[in-house]
Amino acid sequence: MVFLLSLSCIGCDRVTKNLAKEHLKGKEMIQYLNKTVTLVYVENKGAFMSMGADWSDSLSFWTLTVLPLLAMAAFAYYILRNYKKLPTIQLAAWVMVFSGGIGNLVDRVLFDRHVTDFILLGVPGFQTGIFNVADVFVTTGALLLLSHSLVAAIRKKPENDSDTATS
Questions:
Q1: Which of 156, 144, 139, 136 has its CA nearest to residue 88?
Q2: pLDDT tier at 112 (50, 70, 90 boundaries)?
Q3: How far, in Å, CA of 22 to CA of 41, rounded?
Q4: Which of 23, 88, 100, 155 has its CA 20 to 30 A from that of 131?
Q5: Domain spans of the chain?
Protein backbone atom coordinates (compact mmCIF):
# COMPACT_ATOMS: atom_id res chain seq x y z
CA MET A 1 0.00 0.00 0.00
CA VAL A 2 2.78 2.43 0.93
CA PHE A 3 4.63 2.10 -2.35
CA LEU A 4 1.46 2.21 -4.46
CA LEU A 5 0.10 5.30 -2.69
CA SER A 6 3.43 7.09 -2.98
CA LEU A 7 3.83 6.19 -6.64
CA SER A 8 0.25 7.34 -7.33
CA CYS A 9 0.79 10.70 -5.61
CA ILE A 10 4.10 11.34 -7.37
CA GLY A 11 2.65 10.21 -10.70
CA CYS A 12 -0.40 12.46 -10.34
CA ASP A 13 1.86 15.40 -9.53
CA ARG A 14 4.13 14.74 -12.53
CA VAL A 15 1.22 14.31 -14.95
CA THR A 16 -0.52 17.51 -13.83
CA LYS A 17 2.72 19.53 -13.99
CA ASN A 18 3.42 18.20 -17.49
CA LEU A 19 -0.14 19.07 -18.56
CA ALA A 20 0.25 22.55 -17.10
CA LYS A 21 3.51 23.06 -18.96
CA GLU A 22 1.99 21.78 -22.21
CA HIS A 23 -1.32 23.66 -22.04
CA LEU A 24 -0.70 26.74 -19.87
CA LYS A 25 2.89 27.87 -20.40
CA GLY A 26 3.01 31.14 -22.34
CA LYS A 27 -0.77 31.44 -22.41
CA GLU A 28 -3.36 33.57 -20.65
CA MET A 29 -4.71 32.33 -17.34
CA ILE A 30 -7.87 30.24 -17.48
CA GLN A 31 -10.57 31.02 -14.92
CA TYR A 32 -13.46 28.84 -13.77
CA LEU A 33 -16.40 29.20 -11.40
CA ASN A 34 -16.49 32.99 -11.45
CA LYS A 35 -12.69 33.26 -10.87
CA THR A 36 -12.77 30.88 -7.90
CA VAL A 37 -10.36 28.51 -9.68
CA THR A 38 -7.64 29.90 -11.91
CA LEU A 39 -5.09 27.91 -13.88
CA VAL A 40 -1.90 29.84 -14.62
CA TYR A 41 1.61 28.54 -15.35
CA VAL A 42 4.39 29.76 -13.05
CA GLU A 43 7.97 28.58 -12.57
CA ASN A 44 8.53 29.20 -8.86
CA LYS A 45 12.18 29.42 -7.74
CA GLY A 46 11.07 29.97 -4.14
CA ALA A 47 9.03 28.03 -1.63
CA PHE A 48 5.45 28.73 -0.52
CA MET A 49 4.24 32.10 -1.87
CA SER A 50 7.62 32.41 -3.69
CA MET A 51 9.43 32.91 -0.38
CA GLY A 52 13.14 32.73 -1.12
CA ALA A 53 12.80 33.32 -4.86
CA ASP A 54 15.32 36.15 -4.57
CA TRP A 55 17.84 34.23 -2.46
CA SER A 56 21.35 33.57 -3.75
CA ASP A 57 21.83 30.34 -5.70
CA SER A 58 23.81 28.84 -2.83
CA LEU A 59 21.26 29.69 -0.12
CA SER A 60 18.41 28.57 -2.36
CA PHE A 61 20.13 25.26 -3.14
CA TRP A 62 20.80 24.43 0.51
CA THR A 63 17.44 25.51 1.92
CA LEU A 64 15.09 24.50 -0.90
CA THR A 65 16.84 21.38 -2.22
CA VAL A 66 19.28 19.87 0.27
CA LEU A 67 17.26 20.39 3.47
CA PRO A 68 14.03 19.05 1.92
CA LEU A 69 16.00 16.09 0.53
CA LEU A 70 17.26 15.30 4.05
CA ALA A 71 13.73 15.71 5.42
CA MET A 72 12.34 13.33 2.77
CA ALA A 73 15.05 10.79 3.65
CA ALA A 74 14.04 11.06 7.31
CA PHE A 75 10.35 10.70 6.39
CA ALA A 76 11.11 7.63 4.25
CA TYR A 77 13.07 6.09 7.12
CA TYR A 78 10.23 6.79 9.56
CA ILE A 79 7.59 5.39 7.20
CA LEU A 80 9.54 2.23 6.38
CA ARG A 81 10.42 1.64 10.02
CA ASN A 82 6.88 2.17 11.34
CA TYR A 83 4.44 1.33 8.54
CA LYS A 84 3.22 -1.85 10.25
CA LYS A 85 2.54 -0.03 13.53
CA LEU A 86 0.91 3.16 12.28
CA PRO A 87 -2.87 3.52 11.95
CA THR A 88 -3.85 3.51 8.26
CA ILE A 89 -4.85 7.18 8.18
CA GLN A 90 -1.59 8.25 9.81
CA LEU A 91 0.44 6.10 7.43
CA ALA A 92 -1.41 7.54 4.44
CA ALA A 93 -0.79 11.06 5.76
CA TRP A 94 2.96 10.46 6.13
CA VAL A 95 3.10 8.99 2.63
CA MET A 96 1.25 12.02 1.23
CA VAL A 97 3.68 14.47 2.86
CA PHE A 98 6.65 12.40 1.66
CA SER A 99 5.30 12.02 -1.89
CA GLY A 100 4.43 15.70 -2.25
CA GLY A 101 7.89 16.62 -1.04
CA ILE A 102 9.47 14.23 -3.53
CA GLY A 103 7.28 15.63 -6.32
CA ASN A 104 8.57 19.14 -5.73
CA LEU A 105 12.16 17.92 -5.26
CA VAL A 106 12.00 16.22 -8.66
CA ASP A 107 11.13 19.61 -10.16
CA ARG A 108 13.96 21.38 -8.36
CA VAL A 109 16.53 18.78 -9.42
CA LEU A 110 15.39 18.41 -13.04
CA PHE A 111 14.34 21.98 -13.86
CA ASP A 112 17.04 24.39 -12.70
CA ARG A 113 15.74 24.59 -9.13
CA HIS A 114 12.24 25.78 -9.90
CA VAL A 115 8.89 24.14 -9.18
CA THR A 116 5.97 24.23 -11.60
CA ASP A 117 2.92 25.83 -9.97
CA PHE A 118 -0.39 26.33 -11.75
CA ILE A 119 -3.42 26.37 -9.40
CA LEU A 120 -4.81 29.53 -7.83
CA LEU A 121 -7.94 29.56 -5.67
CA GLY A 122 -9.80 32.66 -4.62
CA VAL A 123 -13.02 34.10 -3.32
CA PRO A 124 -13.78 37.77 -2.68
CA GLY A 125 -11.40 38.95 0.02
CA PHE A 126 -9.15 35.87 -0.05
CA GLN A 127 -6.77 34.31 -2.53
CA THR A 128 -4.24 31.51 -2.16
CA GLY A 129 -0.76 31.57 -3.55
CA ILE A 130 -0.21 29.66 -6.78
CA PHE A 131 0.44 26.01 -5.96
CA ASN A 132 0.56 22.50 -7.46
CA VAL A 133 -0.72 18.99 -6.74
CA ALA A 134 2.39 18.10 -4.70
CA ASP A 135 1.55 21.02 -2.40
CA VAL A 136 -1.99 19.65 -2.03
CA PHE A 137 -0.57 16.28 -0.93
CA VAL A 138 1.83 17.90 1.56
CA THR A 139 -0.89 20.12 3.01
CA THR A 140 -3.52 17.37 3.16
CA GLY A 141 -1.07 14.95 4.76
CA ALA A 142 0.03 17.54 7.32
CA LEU A 143 -3.59 18.39 8.19
CA LEU A 144 -4.41 14.69 8.58
CA LEU A 145 -1.40 14.23 10.90
CA LEU A 146 -2.42 17.27 12.92
CA SER A 147 -6.06 16.17 13.23
CA HIS A 148 -5.01 12.62 14.12
CA SER A 149 -2.72 13.98 16.86
CA LEU A 150 -5.44 16.26 18.22
CA VAL A 151 -8.00 13.46 18.32
CA ALA A 152 -5.49 11.16 20.04
CA ALA A 153 -4.70 13.86 22.61
CA ILE A 154 -8.39 14.46 23.32
CA ARG A 155 -9.00 10.72 23.76
CA LYS A 156 -6.10 10.46 26.22
CA LYS A 157 -7.20 13.48 28.23
CA PRO A 158 -8.27 12.35 31.71
CA GLU A 159 -11.89 13.05 32.47
CA ASN A 160 -13.02 14.74 35.66
CA ASP A 161 -13.85 11.94 38.05
CA SER A 162 -16.53 12.91 40.55
CA ASP A 163 -15.63 9.88 42.73
CA THR A 164 -12.26 11.41 43.58
CA ALA A 165 -13.61 14.77 44.69
CA THR A 166 -12.53 15.76 48.17
CA SER A 167 -15.16 16.38 50.81
A1: 144
A2: confident
A3: 10
A4: 88
A5: 2-155
